[in-house]
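Case study 2.
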Amino acid sequence: MNNHKRIARFVGLLYIIGTVAGIFSVVCTGSILESTDLLTKVSANGNQVILGTLFMLIMGISLALVPVIINPILKKYNEALALGYVVFRGALETFTYIATAMSWLLLVVLSKEYVNTASPDSTSFQNMSNLLGDAGEQIHSITMIIFSLGALMFYYLLYQSKLIPKWLSGWGFIGSIIYLATGVFALFGATFSILLMPLGLQEMFMAVWLIVKGFNPSAIDSKS
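Prediction:
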């Protein structure tokens, strides 16, 4: 029982670390990557973009550890979905974070080259920066879709297993559906960031719940 409590607290802590790191990443890079004069802005704030990239990787690693750590518990209820959760959230989502990090770091390198070149071909540099920027946006949309699919598996398992209250896992399941739709819309250039809030709030509430309450003891005992 104590081991299950430690797992629950660790999972809750990882969710908080991932969320805080994600917020810092947006704070560091948001206004820079949305600039119309992208190369000049990135060149002037290269270290800030690198710091934002580091925070994003911390977020990715934190969230990737969750399915690995909780897998021994979840697989007792549905081994296939537990494995799918590891694949989507532990592997595929991590890959997309790495791809995003590479696109941001390439922008930093490109911006420095642009500024240091005596007579830069502005059209070529602009085309390359647009390509990297567009690729980063599409990767972000794909990340949202992969994240949502993994989250749907996770919250279905939590609802089925009753490891946390059904209202809390149900909130997460519905929030994941909304998140998935938002990711699909983002692929076509439509952004509805406000729709991400229900799942974001649920994850923070669940994180605190896991740290304070842990998993439902009767649900754990039923599979012991």
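The chain has one domain: 2-222.
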